[in-house]
Every structure is written in C-alpha cells, then in structure tokens.
Amino acid sequence: MSEFLTTRELAALLRVKERKVYDLAAEGALPVRRVTGKLLFPRGEIEEWLAAGASGRAPRAETASRPLVVAGGHDPLLEWALRESRCGVAALLDGALDGLERAAAGGCIAAGLHIPEPGGGWNVETVAKQLAGEPIVVIEWAERRRGLMFRKGLPRRIACLADARDLAFQSRQPEAGSELVLSLLLEREGLKREQLRLVPAVERTETDLASAIAAGRADIGLGLEASARQFGLDFAPQIVERFDLVVWRKAYFDPPWQRLMRFCAGETFKERAARFGGYDVSHFGAVRFNAD
User: Fold this and answer.
1) Contact 161/186 with Cβ under 8 angstroms?
2) Distance between CA 47 and CA 145 in Å, rounded?
3) Averaged pLDDT, 90-115
4) Residue-wise pLDDT tens digits, 143-174
5) What is this structure's pTM?
6) In the chain, what percentage of residues exceed pLDDT 70?
7) Is residue 264 domain-resident?
8) What angle do helix axes 7-14 and 18-26 make, rounded to 10 degrees?
9) Is 18:7 a contact under the CB 8 Å cutoff?
10) Is the domain of 263 the same as that of 135?
11) Residue at a domain's end among 62, 86, 102
12) Quick check: is 280 in a domain?
C-alpha cells in the first residue's frame, strides 16, 4: 500500500465528498503534505488522527509533524540566515499567499508574510482570520524598503508608478506579496494594472526580478532595495513594509528554530542586514500576534 492517500482515497475512507477533504485540509484539521500543488495525506498520520477522534481526543493537525520548512514570501536576508545559521530549516519561498496556504495545510513550520491590510497594518488581521484557532505566533522579521527598481541611464526621472506606464514592467507571480503591494500603490495613484506595460513572463523571487531588469529583459519592477543594490540598479523608494514570520508554537521552541533565533540575535546578522541595505531589523523578534 502507498505511504500516502490521495484526496479521492481519503474521501472514500471517511465517506465524505472530496470537497470536504479540501475544506478540512485548508482548516488545518488534517495531517497533509503539499507536493507540486497536489495534496497528499500520510497514511500513518491519518490512522493516528482517526484513532484520536475515536478515543474522544480532539484531533488537530499539530499532532502531526510539520516539515522543517519556512514557506512564504521571498526575502534575501531570511534566505541567507537560514543557510548561515545552519539551523537545518529549509526554505520554500514562493510567495506570501502560497506560504499562508501551506501553513494552513500543515506544509511548513513557519511562513514569511508581507500582506498589506486596511488601515496601514501588515499581516496580523490576515493571520487571525486564515489561521483562526491555530497555535501560532507572529514575530517581526524586519521592515523592508520596497520601491521601483530600474536600469541606470533611463532618459527621464522615475519617481512613481505613473512614470513607468510606457516602460516594460516586470511583475511577480500572483501568490507574491509584492503583487498585493503593487495593487495598493496603484490604487493610491489612481492607476489600474492594465495601464502598466507588463512583461508576459513573471519572476518568482526578489533576486530573479532584479536579475531580469539588470539583464535587460524588462525596464522596471517593484522590488526590494536590497536586491536593487545587489544588481547595481537605480531605486525609487515607494513604501516601507513589515515582513513577519508566522510560526507554529511548538516548532518555535524546538532546537532548529531556536538556533536560527540565536543566530539572528547576534552581530553577524545585523551587519549583514546593513550590508544588504533597505532593512531595519531593530524590532526583530517582536511578537506582533499571539493566538489564544
């Protein structure tokens, strides 16, 4: 027998519709893994989950082990810290909305978010709604300067999105938090996305975005100051965003995550943030939300 059940197989086992299985997975009520966009359910953990329900104990997804993965928005400093700290936590940074979905489905121990919210806030209302009832904590990673990055030598000054309307604009994937920020900035300027001359292809990380502009595949994009500096691009700041990490409480106290936190509390981390540019890590580790 396979080690994993498909959605159809699990629905047949539970005698429910497949839609109900998707809903339970989205709520974090089932042990689940997400592989190339497909939901797979570990047979052994499902059997434990069923046994827990039969015995009267409340079956929760956190009883199953989550993979040692940080998902969510791409951040060059986070990517570097995960490697440099040698904490053993892997990175799957494919967009803030993707990270939120993986977090709800049990596919990571933490997710990086930079989701703008009404009133000028970041992340907290979204987490409280999407992960309601889950044992999580939201901690600040850093504040980051985001703005328009473009190749040096453009024939005119670029200060805002209105100045970029006839330039080849490099976008990110729909799951990226930067696309939400782009929508916010367009609304502030009274512009619509259709007024930008979007490049057909998308770039999936902050680094890839800057690389595409530096290579001449696009003229301009909305990215991080740190990435613009890395590739020698001009930069016009537009907004300061807060990048938070939503972390499963149990994983927070486990050795891999604690090793990462200790590393990031040191001078090496602060020096690298300053060298990257565009970061403020003075409130690193501050608790922004602690679920009941």
Assistant:
1) yes
2) 47
3) 95
4) 999 999 999 888 889 999 999 999 999 999 99
5) 0.79
6) 93
7) yes
8) 100
9) yes
10) yes
11) 62
12) no
The domain of 153 spans: 145-240
Residues 76 and 56 in one domain: no
């904590």: which residue's tokens?
A: 137
Is 141 strand, coil or helix?
A: strand
Do 37 and 175 belong to one domain?
Answer: no
CATH number at residue 91: 3.40.190
Instruction: Report yes or no on 79 lying in a domain.
Output: yes
- Strands 69-72, 197-203: pairing is unpaired
Name residue 23's amino acid. D
Domain match, 73 and 201 both:
no
Burial degree of 95 (CB within 10 A; 0-12, 13-18, 19+): buried
Structure-block tokens of residue 184: 């916010």
**How far out from the chain centre does Cα 135 lie?**
18
Q: Residues of 61-72 as b/e, b for ≥16 C-beta within 10 angstroms?
A: bbebebebbbbb
Q: What whole-number distance in Å separates Cα of residue 278 and Cα of residue 145?
A: 5
CB 199 within 8 A of CB 218: yes
